[in-house]
Write a structure and sequence with these properties.
5 strands, 99 residues, YaeB-like fold, five-stranded mixed β-sheet, alpha+beta
């Protein structure tokens, strides 16, 4: 059964920030990165457990997949996949993250 993708406010803001930052140098590359992130998130609808458990949380329902150097952090529920944040792999994850 496919799960619904419900974007958190933070994840949408992260996506916008990533696009704006990359577009300063290359609009085409920004579009490519965002397209790849969106494809990966859509894949989670059918395969929510393909990502690894986020080491900082050690919670089976909080997982991550990677797109380029970005961590797509998401929560899996019985009916939904909730992208909670999208951060660069070199940034420290805010442990107060609420998916």
């Amino acid at each position: 059964m496919a799960r619904l993708i419900i974007w958190s406010h933070r994840a949408v803001e992260d996506l916008d920030s990533i696009a704006a930052y990359i577009a300063q140098d290359s609009e085409a590359y920004a579009k490519s990165v965002i397209r790849t992130i969106l494809k990966k998130v859509r894949l989670l609808s059918k395969f929510p457990f393909i990502g690894r458990i986020v080491p900082e949380f050690e919670d089976e329902s909080i997982r991550e997949i990677f797109a380029y150097n970005y961590r797509i952090i998401y929560k899996v529920t019985d009916l939904e996949v909730i992208p909670a944040a999208i951060i660069h792999g070199k940034r420290i994850l805010d442990l107060s993250l609420e998916p």
